[in-house]
Amino acid sequence: xxxxxxxxxxxxxxxxxxxxxxxxxxxxxxxxxxxxxxxxxxxxxxxxxxxxxxxxxxxxxxxxxxxxxxxxxxxxxxxxxxxxxxxxxxxxxxxxxxxxxxxxxxxxxxxxxxxxxxxxxxxxxxxxxxxxxxxxxx
Length: 138
Hints:
The protein is an alpha/beta fold. The chain has helices at 10-19, 31-36, 66-72, 90-100, and strands spanning 6-8, 24-27, 39-40, 50-51, 55-56, 61-62, 81-84, 106-109, 135-136. The radius of gyration is 14 Å and the shape is globular. The mean pLDDT is 95.
């Protein structure tokens, strides 16, 4: 996989964040998701997640300033970055774009914050929250 470093489960991403003080979580969901669904809580690691929308709500149009905003966030270009979205799809695009811009290694967090839809059309059976990882209401 040359577009980015690879996929990590939410637990593997948390382990990487704990093991490497330079590693950062980049949450690429929308501001509405951060506010209404919740945020991963990395404060115990001495830093907050980096919040940069990959697409903007409600238009869901691509944030053309994503890479510039990532640079402006102050994350080191050589630090491991783990990208999180709702279900592990938007974070693939953001990890790919960050890798192409010289960041990394960059990883996609599979399952995202809430996971994919289940057979009843609900989220929450998998993902960051379901894994019992730290989070807080936005």
